[in-house]
């Protein structure tokens, strides 16, 4: 009998939305779990921290607290393959907006008294440990998770095709382009795979899946500047952490 791959699904500081969408798969997700040995997934059952070697560790969220960093480094040592789930882990996500707006200023909107409040700069997971594969999005696309998990449990690192979100708009039912209507949209420079979920619901793309590799977006950003001010475009790039990766 073939030994099943040990899998842990771990949450750092996060909304846990990327894990919720896995449960949204229903029977399909539990069929996937039959193919692996799930040793940790807090949304299903509270279990002791996994011991021994792991085949795959799926990690969601930002390493913000000391406990987050301890868990992240420990899970990295145990896992043959470490996969980050979602925009927060991959790009810093919405929490990273604090960095752009001044973390000392921003924290005062949350806490009345700052004594003993830890307020670190928000950084992506790959600033702390080696990441083997990234499943992007806010949240991730659950069908994409199943697609690439098949390779991962075989020990293979898949490659996500480098296509823009624009390539998915017509396929998933979006017939009118925002840019043609002179409305800003980051679809041309954002990695596809989300099934154009925002566009087909009449929201422009804000780049939650991150930019395509090996692109030079400056020309496209100049086009956007004909629709919005440079400051407004920078604000858009801050939402999902693209500002660090794309310089205007």
TrEMBL record:
Annotated NADH:ubiquinone oxidoreductase-like 20kDa subunit domain ranges read: 15-148
A molecular function GO annotation: oxidoreductase activity
Q: Which InterPro entries match?
A: Hydrogenase_assoc-protein, NADH_UbQ_OxRdtase-like_20kDa, NiFe_Hase_small_N_sf
The reply to whether Manganese figures as a keyword in the UniProt entry is no
* One Pfam short name: Oxidored_q6
Q: Which UniProt keywords apply?
A: Oxidoreductase
Give the protein's recorded name. NADH:ubiquinone oxidoreductase-like 20kDa subunit domain-containing protein
